[in-house]
Every structure is written in structure tokens, then in C-alpha cells.
Write a structure and sequence with these properties.
alpha+beta, Cystine Knot Cytokines, subunit B, four-stranded antiparallel β-sheet, two-stranded antiparallel ribbon, about 35% helix, elongated
């Protein structure tokens, strides 16, 4: 299950990027403003569609550390380029919380020890998010825009770039 979550994050990011979703605006070039209730419904629908169970697992997690533990799995610890997850939180972004991979070493684990002849680098996925901003013409409402955010979803071992 945990191995599937890591692979699912990479696959999800690739699919969202390749689908080419763009922000939409209402007629006349002005974005539509949403009430707090409308915003919540729109964000819930967005998270179910684009983030599936990953987002809802984070919302249901008891703590950020618990959410990171749920997403960690055993692949990140067995990798030649191991990583940990941390949770980033932005209140104006949906989903509010996203697990981000952080490489544990500069080098890679070769024959049981860190070898700096190789580099441990993050694997970046472009994931769909929603951003909310206060409505310019009604302070009690919000505008919502789809966007792409680059997220480190894991780490991999690579040969260093040549200094030629």
C-alpha cells in the first residue's frame, strides 16, 4: 500500500501535467468570486478529482507527523537515495497540506555507506493545486485559480554533472 502511494504521487503528477488544465475565467475576463461555502464545495470537488485519497488521508491524519508516516512507506528507506517526507501547509492553497520529499544525503548509499561519487537528487512532479485570493470587488468572497506546483515526491541516485 505505501509503495503504491509513492508511485501514485508520481503518476498523478505526470497525468495532471499532461492533461494541460488551465485556469478558467468568467465572461468578460473577470474571475468569478465564491462565498466561503461555495469555495469549500469547489475545493472538496477539486481535491476528490485531482488528489483522490491522498488529500483525504492528510485531512484525516491526527498530526502532520502522522500524515508523513502514512505516506512514508518502505521504498524511501530502501532506496540508494533515501528520503523523508515533511508536510508543507499553505492556508490559501488546496490541498492545504502536501507531503514533500527531502533527500537524506548528498551522496548515495553504495555498499552500505554514503558515497559522494554519486548525487542524491529530488524527483520533481508538477501537481495541480487551487489558489484562493480575496475577491477584489467583494471582500467577503474569494477568487479561485488552478495552478501547477512543483513538488519533490522522492529522491533518486544520479551520476554527478561533469565539470567540463
Amino acid at each position: 500500500m505505501t509503495r503504491w502511494v509513492s508511485l501514485h504521487m508520481i503518476s498523478l503528477g505526470s497525468l495532471l501535467f499532461l492533461n494541460g488544465h488551465c485556469p478558467s475565467a468568467a465572461a468578460g475576463g473577470r474571475s468569478r468570486c465564491f462565498s466561503e461555502d461555495q469555495l469549500k464545495k469547489r475545493a472538496d470537488r477539486f481535491e476528490r478529482r485531482y488528489w483522490g485519497t491522498l488529500s483525504h488521508n492528510l485531512q484525516g491524519a491526527r498530526t502532520c507527523a502522522g500524515a508523513a508516516a502514512e505516506m512514508r512507506g518502505d521504498v524511501n528507506g530502501r532506496s540508494l537515495s533515501p528520503w523523508n517526507y515533511s508536510i508543507t501547509r499553505e492556508d490559501d492553497r488546496f490541498p492545504h497540506e502536501i507531503a514533500v520529499a527531502e533527500c537524506l544525503h548528498e551522496g548515495c548509499i553504495i555498499n552500505g555507506s554514503v558515497n559522494k561519487d554519486y548525487n542524491s537528487v529530488p524527483v520533481i512532479a508538477k501537481l495541480m493545486i487551487l489558489k484562493k485570493t480575496p475577491c477584489k470587488w467583494d471582500a467577503t468572497k474569494y477568487m479561485v485559480e488552478k495552478g501547477i506546483q512543483k513538488i519533490a515526491v522522492g529522491c533518486t541516485c544520479v551520476v554527478p554533472k561533469s565539470l567540463n
